[in-house]
Fold this sequence. Notes:
By secondary structure, this protein is α/β, with parallel strands linked by helices. It has helices at about 15-30, 50-55, 65-75, 90-100, 125-135, 155-160, 165-185, and strands at about 1-5, 35-40, 80-85, 90, 110-120, 140, 150.
Amino acid sequence: MKVVAFNGSPYNDRVVAKGISAMAEVLAKEGIEVEVVHVGNKSIHGCMDCWKCRELKHCVITNDPVNESLEKILAADGVILGSPVYYGGIAGTFKCFLDRIFFPGLDMQYKVGASVIALRRTGGIATFHQVNNYFNLAQMIITPGIYWNVIHGMNQEEVLQDEEGMRVMEIQARNMAWLLKTLEAGKKNIPLPNPMQRVRTNFIH
């Protein structure tokens, strides 16, 4: 089994990276491969709402890591999304990335999702919920935890002082490993639900 983790921070050596690596260590002990992809330092255009991705099954913008990352997600069993908190929400570059990753509506159903939210002080819960919106609307299964998946610090030395936050990451990783293995075993005996056609409405009559 394989998990792909996306670091949405501009830095590959700070708090988001530490949270992802803490989870990756636990997952590796459970025999699950983790690939880390750093996207927060890339130039990533926002979604243009052209809807072409629904037809082409990939984004029409091809000069950034979005389409390559889509392929990695489709080949993986689980996804970790790691973001710092900017003004109480997902970091801007990472938000552009996630909008374009999830809007094509490709088959991510029943993959396992987990999050790493890193911040100095406040805004983590709102960002945690924003990340979970992507998982939920893609019909992915959100990994359960004992608390919001938030860790505090300005660097990797400081985050180690957040003992509760680091333990939350460890428990989340253990839960993710169990969930991945449970789903793999269950698929052999219980078929996945048949997909249903989505109905779209609006509030203008």
